[in-house]
Specification:
Layout: E1 11-13, H1 27-39, E2 45-47, H2 59-73, E3 79-82, H3 88-101, E4 105-109, H4 117-129, E5 135-139, H5 141-144, H6 150-156, E6 162-167, H7 172-179, E7 187-190, H8 196-201, E8 206-209, H9 216-227, H10 231-251, H11 253-263, H12 280-292, H13 294-297
Parallel strand pairs: 1-8, 2-3, 3-4, 4-5, 5-6, 6-7, 7-8
Organism: Occultella aeris
EC number: 4.1.3.3
Family: Belongs to the DapA family.
């Protein structure tokens, strides 16, 4: 049976949100970024996640960003909308509005309030049951402080509308176990970009990540090398991936990506408060990184 999100089994950028000077989302520029990444060969888009500031935006802003990405893609690749909030009713409302806007799936991280395991499971189940499009659970222990177990996901997988997991963890043993639930019933997307190859080896169908915004070809190449069995080349590409992520971490991943996209010609605006932009020294370091690696940051490097 064909997986409902099979076309998104690949490299899926978790989109950054550009902003205007007044702090509102720059919707035309978000459309430009979407079109550029589509041109560069990505397999889908993840809108409104941690990278896109979804939980720091109003529901109206989140929906507007979703609508822009859906319109720009025009069905060429799937769009997954992150709709997680701290209240189930609000999450369901945004999920259904996103579905009406034409997304292919919705996703949610756990609320940032203490929940029992039963409450965690009920939150995901309620969203999955209450929406007409497939649901992708977002497991991010580093953000939520909760490392959801394989048994948790085995129970969640009993819900017909649960399609997969965005797995942002370095636990490759856990990823491997998730990928084996129900003979592979759940699609697992690797979420920590620095271990992309390990994620593919462990059973991930692809990856959803922030660093793809600035250098999608690097990860597309890595996945293609893995899928064709060119493992020596894949290991070499993974070294480039590790170095790239290391450089982003050194100056701060999200503000560095915002600066890299600015250098690629996008009007990204300021980070949404309380996030900060790079200082002058950090921006200078990113300019040096950009100039040193044209093969990473320009479509001609594809």
């Amino acid at each position: 049976m064909t997986h409902p999100l099979e076309r998104a089994h690949g490299i899926v950028p978790a989109l950054l949100t550009p902003y205007l000077d007044d702090g509102a989302p720059n919707l035309p520029e978000l459309g430009r970024l979407t079109a550029a990444l589509l041109e560069r060969g990505v397999a889908g888009f993840y809108v409104g996640g941690s990278t896109g500031d979804g939980v720091m935006q109003t529901p109206q802003e989140r929906l507007a960003c979703i609508e822009v990405v859906v319109a720009e893609t025009g069905g060429q690749v799937p769009v997954i909308a992150h709709v997680g909030t701290n209240a189930t009713r609000l999450t369901l409302d945004l999920a259904n509005r996103a579905a009406a806007a034409g997304v292919d799936a919705v996703s949610a991280i756990l609320p940032s309030v203490p929940l029992t395991p039963a409450e965690q499971l009920d939150y995901f189940r309620t969203v999955a049951r209450g929406c007409d499009v497939p649901f992708v659970a977002y497991n991010f222990p580093g953000r939520t402080g909760v490392n959801l177990s394989v048994e948790f996901f085995a129970a969640l997988a009993e819900e017909p509308n649960v399609a997969g997991v965005k797995f942002t963890s370095l636990d490759m043993f856990g990823l491997q176990q998730l990928a084996r639930i129900g003979d592979g019933r759940l699609a697992i997307w690797n979420g920590h970009d620095e271990v992309a190859l390990a994620g593919f080896v462990s059973g991930a169908c692809g990856a959803i990540g922030s660093t793809f915004n600035a250098a999608p070809e690097l990860f597309i190449r890595l996945l293609e090398q893995f899928r064709t069995g060119d493992y020596d080349a894949a290991r070499t590409t993974q070294v480039a991936v590790s170095n790239y992520v290391r450089d982003l971490v050194a100056t701060g991943v999200l503000p560095t990506l915002r600066e890299l996209l600015r250098l690629q010609g996008f009007a990204m605006g300021h980070s949404r408060h309380p996030l900060h932009d790079l200082d002058a020294d950090g921006a200078a370091r990113v300019r040096t990184l950009f100039a040193a690696h044209p093969e990473l940051f320009t479509p001609s490097g594809h």
